[in-house]
Amino acid sequence: MTPDMDEKKERLQLTGREQQTLYGISGSPGIVVGKILVLSHQREQYGRYTLDTDRVEAEVERFRAAVTRTEEELTGLRRQCEEDLADTLSIIDSHILMVRDRMILDRTITLIREQQINAEWALSKALGLIKKKFDTIADSYIRDRFADIKYVVDRLSGQLSGRRQELLSEAAGPVILVSDDFSPEDTLRMQSKEVLGFLTEKGGVTSHTAIVARSLGVPAVLGLENITRICTTGDTVILDGFSGRVYLSPSPDQQRQYLEYDRQHRAFSDELAWYIHLSSETVDGLRVRLSANIERLTELQTVHQYGAEGIGLFRSEFDYFHQDRIPDEDTLYATYRDLLAGIAPAPVTIRTLDVGGDKFAAYLRKSGLDPDLERNPALGLRSIRFSLRESNLFITQLRAMLRASCFGRLRILLPMISSLSELQRVRSMLNAIMEDLHQEEIAFNPAVEVGIMIEVPSAVVMADTLAAEVDFFSIGTNDLIQYSLAIDRGNEYVAHMYEPLHPAVLRMISQAVDAAHQQGIEVALCGEMAGDVVTAPVLLGLGIDELSMRPSAIPHVKRLLRHSCFRQLRDLGEKVLKCGDGGEVRNLLTSYLPEYYPVEFAER
Description:
The chain is α/β, with parallel strands linked by helices. Helices cover about 45% and strands about 15% of the residues.
């Protein structure tokens, strides 16, 4: 169990070589025992200096040359990964695009020219302006993508200064690397016998660094506050990437014990490949669809690789987020068409635009609205509220989706629905769009499925009414937990209170499932809980019909599902609903999981 904040801080302030346990975030599974190497990523120290007028264009060309070298470096890295690490290509591709993104490229050049300043200082100022925008984004998943922009800017800064980063230059034998953070490209360079795993102060399970680490099979624990100050190069640690625990100065017996755990888990991982193409059902015949959460077309290969039965969540906002301008209908249509055709006949759930007005600040100011005035964007103009207000943007996206619906089984998912009136407005718009397409003699599937995300408490309370108006529910637990418990998991002061197994959250899930099933519609769940083998049995016991997760988690959950009995899962679901707090739920799981899944949950 995660300790409370005071206990955690007290532990993290300890120094020396006494035995202690640190609690972080499981970034990539695996267990390693070894010596650590603490890396201090030196930030280049540079100041601002003013350029003579006749030197400005030369400075612009110096910056452009750094951009070209950075792009070539990333492209070379991409070529190295094409055959063996296809599921990381989309991450490298996004970084290559960012190198020439207008937010970085044009803004830096403009600052060099207008203020006649050196490229390093202009790039730093451009990054600061971008960060201000990202800080106002309500969606935590998208907000976390700022880390990728910072990685790219750091790489550009290194090119400008001639600084080279060599992760292993100080290594003498196999080590566990420790740093404040690593970029995805840093992580790709860890394909070496010299790197056993890594620990960071920053990052989370959805960070691109964690995604790459999982692809490489490099064990990692992230979010370890002050780890670079607590540890010293040469210290021995146990890194447990399954639980997110790190043991400092472990005893010889503890080291031997964890090396045996590692051997058992490796044997278990080899067994997982057998499950990839088996059906997703319990021993007593209950079928549960296991789908993938993705954000880019380039991830389809990974979806097939891990045996997903469809796309449970396609985050459509990335088509808007990584382009210089708002995409038009044909651009969106091409993306959705290729997505549906690439996975047909399996279902594809595309979530409509799920961002706040901060992303479209210039667009909104033209219409007389200033998004900077929003004091609390998490409770403001975001998701379906934004789409309904900016109807032209929304109509363009819906038309593109409907046109693409002929190429597969499309399910349109509406985010952050909080009332029946919002749903009715969308339904009215869809009907009008369908009529227009019919008049224009443009083909579409009139029976396309429409569902809503259950991610705010009002939607749970009104679930019986809403279920009568849609074809499916999809529960977004990431936001549901935050809105229900009034906890921002990105806030270091309250993040320890973020509890997915809080009885209030579990009862809300149960209430939404019951309301949906009474109306004969399915319920999917697409939050991080879906891909967690600890929480998945609870969700199945509460009656969830579909779990959608990162593709690499599917074999783990499928194996667990195929070793499950629905009657036992249902009994577990009834028991957790009677618990009084999250600790009681976890205590229940501590006894239940090793009993029914001894291989997955060997006690330690």
